Amino acid sequence: MKNQIQYLHLFPQTIHIPSNESWIILDSENNNTEQVIILAEWAKLDFYSARTSGKLHLRIIHQGAGSNSQIQCGFHTQENEKIEAIIKSSFEVNDASSEIYILSLAETDGEVLLDSSIEIQEGVKRIVGRLKERHIFLGSGGKIRGIPALIVHSDDIEASHALAIDRISDEELFYLRSRGFNRDEGTGLLLDGAISEIFTGLKKVDEEMYNKCKEKIFVFSQ
Questions:
Q1: How far is residue 159's CA from residue 117's CA, in Å, rounded to a whole number?
Q2: Which of 58, 74, 135, 206 lies 20 to 30 Å (CA to CA) from residue 85?
Q3: Contact 71, 97 (CB under 8 A)
């Protein structure tokens, strides 16, 4: 499975990643799915999601020491579209790590509802858990709800979470506009950079799939 993209919709509801294996899993079907992914000792998961609608309920369970998960999600809802995502990563052993980064874009009447968390059980030590959400309004309306949470029942861990809900600001556009780009062009460049960051890991594996994921999310109504 190393350095080969696997597609989430082809798996059963529960996935076991064996010891010392490195998997790349892509979710891009806009379907309704509930998935559990269990990581054994020194297993590694790179998970990417590119959605414009549907429900994603994803639970990552670190059962093996040395396991690592990187969860990268890019969501974009346009008019009357809706995404509901529950993304949770939990630790049952010492010496493991997980990072979750979610970028969502909502245009007028689009809706993104998110519930993400990292949970560290009592007595589990030497854990690294990072959770970051950024949500950007692109239209005059739209609805975004983000509830990032750290649930920590132990010491000797490194954990952080961050949430930003905003629009592309004049301050962000100032440099680009001073270089001759108009507002729409500058906004497009900033969005392209943010979306590229989400899927950059795919570029090293499959540049065609990297471009497809970017194009699916990067629908900007100028």
A1: 11
A2: 206
A3: no
Q: Is 70 within the bounds of a domain?
A: yes
Is there a domain that residue 139 lies in? yes
pTM of the full predicted structure? Answer: 0.91
Tell me: the pLDDT tens digits for 130-180? 999 999 888 777 888 888 898 888 888 888 888 887 777 667 667 667 777
Q: How many domains does the chain have?
A: 1
Distance (Å, whole) CA 115 – CA 17: 24
Per residue, the 3-state secondary structure of 148-160, as one string, reads: EEEEECCCCEEEE
Determine, yes or no, domain membership for 216: no
Evaluate whether residue 183 is within a structural domain.
no
Residue 107 pLDDT: 87
pLDDT tens for 46-66 read 999 999 999 999 999 999 999
What secondary structure, in 3-state letters, does 70-136 show?
A: EEEEEEEECCCCEEEEEEEEEECCCCEEEEEEEEEEECCCCEEEEEEEEEECCCCCCEEEEEEEEEE
Which of 103, 115, 118, 108 has its CA nearest to residue 51?
103
